[in-house]
Amino acid sequence: LLLRWRRRRGLWRKVAEAQERQERSLVQMETAVQRFREQNPSVNVVSILSLPLPELSKKLRDGSLPLDHVFYSYVGKALQIATETNCITEYLQESENQLRKAKLTGKQGLLYGVPVSIKDSIDCQGHDSTMGFIKYLNKPAAEDSVVVQVLRRQGAIPFVKTNVPQSLISYDCKNLIFGQTCNPLLYTRTPGGSSGGEGALIGGGGSILGLGTDVGGSLRFPAAFCGVCALKPTGNRLSKRGIQSGVVGQKAVAAAVGPLAKDVESLALCMRALLCEDMFSLDSTVPPLPFNEEVYSSTQPLRIGYYETDFFTMPSPAMRRAVREMKQLLEEAGHTLVPFELTNVDYVIFNFCVRGMFADGGTSFVKKFNGELEKGSTGLFFWLAKSPHWLKTLLSWIAKPFVPRFSSIIGSMKANTVSEVWSLHHEIEDFCHQFIAQWKKLNLDVMLCPMLGPAFGIGYPGKVSVAVSYTMLYNALDFPAGVVPVTTVTDEDEEELKDYKGYYRDWWDRTLAKAFSGSVGMPVAVQCVALPWQEELCLRFMKEVETL
């Protein structure tokens, strides 16, 4: 007992040190901004912060905007948003040296002088990638991840790291070390996760471009919940070298790294910058496909598949309306919209996603929590992963007639043999080819899909983990998918929500109705999807949606 008490005291000490470091980071930011403002009292911060990224980067490159004016304007705004939402875990103080060097050399890349925020789990040399775990504190990365190296070579200045939920397997944004991050649009709401710090910072205007990761919607939830744009590319379009993940080695559900920004043009600029020779030579496992300008800038009318529901998670009235209104606008603009029949999403979620991510019965997931003080917002998964096989089987059997979805989740979390995992991978491949065949039969270019929203109240994502169905489908398929905010919740949506029952009418559906409510004025997005490796077409479609 004494040993355990000592160990726990040691862990709490580490947490306290990390919190002090976070606090010191904000003080460093404040000092830097104050010093700059005293030396440059006439800088128009508001006009700098109002510039869209393409315009800002052009002005930085042609010298009409000084680098330090832009940098310190964003450091100041980021500090304000961090104070309001608790989204920043660390200030990368070396960014000030990089700024000085950039001014001296004047060597210009596509993102010359652009301050960029980085998700906690993406390695930056000399800084922790904690994933919200105490065990990863004080273990600074030996080198930058490939994407951060490429950003630097393109002239960008990574300046802060942002908060995540413990383990990253959550779409809330809370951990024991840095605490809860709030939504900048409404502090009682979650910013989404797991790239929640990014969503909050960019949604609040404290960063103009950020990098996050996505294994079930972790880029798309924060973007949709905070009213910004994001792109989850095909899993291997951008390098994942030097990026930490919640479940290492699983191949069933494809993770991806991608950008978040206020608008689509900014996402395209970031992809253009990353898809360069530098990235292809730093990571030769990434296909050397440069950004295809022709596809992105095409104005050909599109053939667009669409659906309003996946028949698994009943959409909120605002989600359904977002797809309907967008469909109409796209048709009026000369595009063709074709209904797409989605089937068996329940099977995909339970048998491909849950079973794929926890194919070892959750052993590696549980191991991550060994020696931690808290098990975070992954409640149900953690508890199930820890349960012995016989208990899972028994619970699954008992629950089946009353709560079939709960029964399916328990059943999906059994440990598999190697041959069962292989056959699962084969089944996922088959499903992907069938999905593409259906897509080709309808002769589609892209697909318009619902995106979960509006933002849930803090704590709700942990209670309704099943609502990842709209996003996680495209991790299982490994298709590029982006989100664009298109509307806000109206009083009528709120009124209609009173009749929300869900498809299963179980505890999750009842909880979802509560999670959606009280959100008048909050943003709602749609999801834009393309076939694998068609990021440029996906962005082109997103741009169309944004314009309309």
Automatic annotation (TrEMBL):
InterPro entries: Amidase_CS, Amidase_dom, AS_sf, Endocannabinoid_amidase. Substrate binds at residues 168, 194, 215-218. Keywords: Hydrolase, Lipid degradation, Lipid metabolism, Phosphoprotein. Transmembrane segments: none annotated. The keyword Transcription regulation does not apply. It catalyses: N-(5Z,8Z,11Z,14Z)-eicosatetraenoyl-glycine + H2O = (5Z,8Z,11Z,14Z)-eicosatetraenoate + glycine; N-tricosanoyl-taurine + H2O = tricosanoate + taurine; (11Z,14Z,17Z)-eicosatrienamide + H2O = (11Z,14Z,17Z)-eicosatrienoate + NH4(+); N-octadecanoyl ethanolamine + H2O = octadecanoate + ethanolamine. Residues 74-539 form the Amidase domain. SUPFAM superfamilies: Amidase signature (AS) enzymes (SSF75304). The active site is at 119 (charge relay system), 194 (charge relay system), 218 (acyl-ester intermediate). GO terms for biological process: fatty acid catabolic process. Signal peptide: none annotated. GO terms for molecular function: amidase activity; fatty acid amide hydrolase activity. It comes from the Eukaryota. The keyword Hydrolase applies. Belongs to the amidase family. This is Fatty-acid amide hydrolase 1. It comes from Tachuris rubrigastra.
